[in-house]
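Changelog note: in this version the structure field was regenerated for every chain. One regenerated record is shown below for reference.
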Amino acid sequence: MIKRYSLGPMDNNTYLIVDEATHEAALVDPSFGSDQLLPEIMGDGLMLRYILNTHAHFDHIVGNAYYAAKTGAPIALHRADLSLLRALPEQGRRFNVDLEPSPDPTIFLEEGKTLMLGETPIRVLFTPGHAPGHVTFLVGDSALVGDVLFRGSIGRTDLPGASLETLMHSIRTRLLTLPDTTEALPGHGEPTTIGHERRTNPYLV
């Protein structure tokens, strides 16, 4: 089961993946306001096993420190985004926001790696372009695509370390090879499907 929460001033999606057999959970991209989810997580009797980051832009990792402190769950990130994560306070200052540093990840993600959440496999696809270490998480028939692909759009490439050529390669060789029925769960905005974007997304058709 995957729950989506739209949070904060930038319409971020934070996701909670739950393995219903074991009540283990993984929190994906804890954004502004994600601390309000902890009572629900604890009230449902869930054990937070992972804090998963699709990438390390500040609005996707701002809740890392809170959840690491409250639950002891390890942070997972691709090594290519480690410098971005360590620069979280500097990222915040560009937007006039004081942000607490994130702990370093203790799990490094890479293409093909699989994390087990109870009986639920979470497979990692390396999808750089929006950020150097951006990854997508495959869970069942869903892809948590972060800021790579959106409903009718694609991720920004006007940020440091971004590349339109790399982003398009990631989309075409990683995401568009998935079945059309795959649910695409983005970092902002409404969910979509791979098939819908293949047919209608102006950046892809």
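Spot check on this record: The chain has one domain: 2-200. The helical segments are 38-43, 58-61, 64-71, 82-86, 88-94, 164-175, 194-200.
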